[in-house]
Every structure is written in structure tokens, then in C-alpha cells.
# Entry
Amino acid sequence: MPEISSYGGDAKIVATRGEIDRVMAELNGLESWLRAQVELQDFAVEPVLRVRLALELPPILERLGHIRDACGRAADSYFGTEAELSRELRENADLPVKNIATGFAGLGSVLGVLTETSVSADLVGINNSVAPANSIAALANRLNDTAEVGPAWIRIEKFREPASPVKAADGLVVPGEARYVVYIPGTQAWGPKTGSNPLDLTSNFGAISKTGSAGSERAVELAMQQAGINQASKVLFVGHSQGGLVAANISSRYAGSKALTFGAPISQLGSALTSDTLAVEHKNDLVPRLDGKPNPLAENWVTVRHDLPGRDPITQHSMNGYCETATEIDTAANMGDHNGGLGRIREEIVQFSGGNQGQAFYFEIKRNP
# Structure
């Protein structure tokens, strides 16, 4: 399977490509100078030192060659991704996506479609013994399972606090200790006319046009409140497609949050997305490109890109495909084959919940008539 690539998550770029090329040129110059010291005519001057240098020179030149080649490979790897990002930023039109989405929603409202409504969230199930997910693949699989449990269901896990009903009034919520994981599936209803499921086309337009406006986003926050989550809580949001966009939108309002998204168009959030974020995308998945540009190069934001060759567009975007890619990310991490930013943010995400058992709450979110 083709290797994953990633960019972002580093505190700063410590060298330009030109600076690395200058260092490589200096190494080449040093190699040429050393070779010049053992030319035949030079042995007439200080012959003992020349012979000693000639004996020691081959391993020195070999080490210099390794350093030069390593610089080249590092530059090609890092700045190759940067060049790809720069090219996409130049070649892709910077579309006013929020304005376009708002315009479609407004037009739809006039025509009686794409109409936002009030929403609700009902607790429908509790699992009182849940182990924390300890890998990106485990988080991806739980998100996939959530989407298959029932339509318009989301899952909220709670760790590091006593098992209890989800009522903050009981005095059992300790914001400094509790950790929550919120799983938000992707779009499930594609008709232009709004029904009871808020994970719909209407919410797609609402989520990309303005944070806090989509029915699905408002319903998820209602479920979060019932689970005891407040603005001081530490939350990991995990979402696919629309769910990833909703996850990113909500995370921008929770200071102690992190986000893991799969196939989500979130670049339009830009600097508003301050939480540590791992955005996973397939290179041939069209949905992450709906916001008109690639994700920015930022310290708190790592974008992973992966090929799924030979797959049709639906499979490219499916959560099953992203579960495969999540496994590839974990494999790369275990082999140490990743950039520093990816390694850091991945570790923060997989260690987020801690090692103790917790609870899982299932909520059904609805649009009200």
C-alpha cells in the first residue's frame, strides 16, 4: 500500500530549501578540498602527513557523503510536501466557500428546502464498562461503528470520573480531570428537504457557512451538555465528513479540546481552529476539497494524505477506507516513519483518555417538526 505523507504540526521551519542547498554545497566544497590534499605532486611536501591523510581520508569522505545525501533526502521529503502545498494554494481558486454555502441555504429556504429547524438530543443507551481507544485505528473503528448502530446516533465517552448518570447537577463532574471523546458520523440524509435526521444536506451547508448554525452541530452540543461537558472540559472530537466539520467547528469553542477528522472540508476554519488537530484525507477524496483549498501549514494542525489507488469515489470517501488509512498511520508511528508534528499530535490524541475504564453514552439527535 502506498505510504502516507503528512505536513504541519511543527513549531517552526528551521531552514529554507536554499539554506539546505547551501550546506550541501559547502559539504561538496569540503570534499573537493580534502581530495586535493592527497594529489600525487603534494606528497613531496610533508610526505608523512600526506600518507596519513590518504589512509584516513576514505572513511571521512564516506561520512561526508552520507551527511550530504541525508540532507538531500530530508529536503526532498519535507520541502516536496511544502512545494505540493504551495502549488495547490496557487492553482486552486480561493473560493468564498462560506458565502456560497450561505447563498445556497438562503435560496433553499425561499424554495422550501434546506430549511434549518430546532433540534433535540435524547439519551438512548449507556455502556458502563468501556476501555479507552489507544490508537488512531481504534478511534476510527469506533466512529465507524457509531454510524452503523443507528441513524442519527452519536457516541460520547467519559473517562477519569466515577460511573454515574450523566447529570452535572450530581456534583460528580470534575472538569479538571474528566476526559470526553465525542464521535460524530458523516452525512446520512441527502435529500434537499429536511426530515428528522439532522446529519443531512441542510446541515452540510449550515456547518460550512457559519459555526454554530447547522442543526447537527447544535444537536451535538445539546448531547454534550447532557453528558456533563462544559466550556472548561477536555474533549476529543472524532468525526467523518460532515461530522468532521462539525467536530472542528465545535472544537474551536472549547479551549481544552483536540480534533481527529476523516475526509472533512475544514481548511476554511483557518486560524480559528486553535485546538490540536489531525486531519486525515485521501488524495482522491473530493469532499475534503469542497472548501476550495488545502489545509494550512500550522503548528497545531497536521494533515495526513494517503492514496487509495483503484478505488471509486464513494470508497475513497467511505469511513471503511479511512479505517484502513488509520491503521497505516499507526503502523508508520510504530516504525518511527513520520514527521515530528504527526508523531507529537498522534501521541496526544491516542493518550488523551488515559488508561482506566470509562462509560459510553449514546444519544439520538433529531430535528423537531
